[in-house]
Automatic annotation (TrEMBL):
Domain Cyclic nucleotide-binding: start-end pairs: 33-120
Name of the featured protein: Cyclic nucleotide-binding protein
Organism: Niastella koreensis
CDD domains associated with the record: CAP_ED
Annotated transmembrane regions: none
Length: 194
């Protein structure tokens, strides 16, 4: 638990340092949880009650209906995870969150986070900054999906996260960048990875 909190502190303080009191209060709301591979953390229709910080493992958020499945995001050490829009609005999620591998996560509740943001303005500012950067990343990804061709999407994925080819099944990576598995396989065979 202590190592996990140190990783969380390191991650947070790159964005915005907290006072000793703020950090002690923030560190006090997290609990360590372990999940098996393919565990559903949040199902569509449920309201996201938790914010996670990933210590080990890989998770994915995805959309699923009767006709299609689309991977929205992957999370891995050391980043936050959860269905963000449902967590922030406290409305039912349209998406699923699952573990792709056995995962060790720090977890806190929406209620605890809200109470801390009311108590410490600096923590509220920190959460707002993380939310702003997440939105920025989402808009960048949206532009990529709408304007890049298949090879550009593939190259962008590898430039941003080259390690994912060994960690995440290729069918999920193909879904994430908006292409079918056959096209992804062809790109794997033909695009030189630098």
């Amino acid at each position: 638990m202590e190592k996990g909190l140190e990783q969380l502190k390191k991650h947070l303080f790159t964005m915005q340092p907290l006072s000793d009191e703020e950090w002690q209060d923030f560190a006090g709301i997290w609990q360590l949880h372990q999940y098996k591979r393919k565990a559903t953390l949040t199902a569509a229709g449920e309201t996201e009650r938790y914010l996670y910080f990933v210590l080990e493992g890989i998770q994915r958020a995805f959309f699923l209906d009767a006709e299609r499945e689309a991977t929205l995001v992957f999370t891995y050490p050391y980043c936050f995870s959860g269905i963000a829009d449902s967590l922030l609005t406290q409305l039912p999620s349209r998406y699923f969150l699952e573990t792709l591998t056995a995962s060790t996560l720090l977890r806190t509740t929406h209620t605890q986070l809200q109470q801390l943001m009311e108590k410490h303005r600096n923590i509220e500012k920190l959460i707002n900054r993380f939310t702003s950067f997440a939105l920025m990343g989402l808009l960048e990804r949206h532009v990529e999906l709408l304007t890049y061709n298949a090879e550009e999407k593939f190259r962008t994925l590898l430039k941003r996260s080259p390690h994912v080819l060994q960690l995440i099944p290729h069918k999920y990576l193909a879904s994430y960048i908006g292409m079918d598995a056959t096209t992804f396989s062809k790109l794997m065979a033909t695009v030189r990875i630098e």
